[in-house]
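Good morning N.,

You mentioned wanting to compare the apo and holo forms, so I went ahead and generated the holo version with T5A. This is what I fed in:
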Amino acid sequence: MPTSPKPAGKLISFEGSEGSGKSTQIARLVAHLQQAGREIVSTREPGGTELGERIRDILLHKDEGQGMCAEAELLLFTAARAQLVRTVITPALKRGAVVVSDRYLDSSTVYQGAARNLAAGPVAAVNGFAVGEVMPHLTVVIDVPTEVSLARVRARSTGRPDRIEREDAAFFQKVRDAYLQLGKDWPQRVLVVDGTRPPDALEQQIWAEVQQRLG
Ligand code: T5A
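and this is what came out, ligand included:
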């Protein structure tokens, strides 16, 4: 009996400011992909592995992370990423799965590069070392104005904001501007969508783009 060829693995990353709606839209896209019969691996950054979740805790929540310099921050985010790529993403892509990641290397370009003012060259080099050849086939940037992002974070806040959520509005404006620039620099890979649209409308737009761009 001939077996049908294994589908090609795909990596889809979601990016955007805090509260832009990434988790909401990832859950909806995963449901569509599962209905289409694909193996789905859903992951997040920083995190997605035991080591990565420990690093996440230091980066966002632990007292030891206070006063962290921007260079150490970049290296910790990319250390978590390197582990995720080697132990989760690459094996899943080899099996033919669709990997959906809540943030990936563009977050370091934007947060540590543009917002923390680290030079673009070293950030790209460290990012490249962490991911090797594993680039997203599609990156969905959910764009919302900074005041919307901050209002959503405040509205759902259950306690103390994390270390990065405590940054000021100027920091998050740089984040937003840098994501919009990525959309202009990499139009084939990066799709920018308007995160102020209703969730259902965004879901339909993203699902249509995924089918059209990734087949
Ligand atoms: N970071 C990360 C770096 O600095 N460098 C790096 O390399 C990496 C990988 C991670 C932090 O680390 C930084 C970036 C971040 O600061 P996180 O805890 O993982 O932080 O959180 P975020 O990625 O920021 O995501 P959030 O959980 O804050 O928000 P989401 O997932 O974007 O938004 P979501 O879906 O939870 O929605 C937020 C609220 O908005 C509503 C939802 O119901 C929810 O209440 N909402 C909408 N409301 C109206 N219209 C819509 N279309 C809506 N969609 C959602």
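The helical segments are 22-35, 50-60, 70-95, 105-115, 120-131, 146-156, 169-185, 199-214.

Happy to go through it together on a call whenever suits you.

Best,
F.
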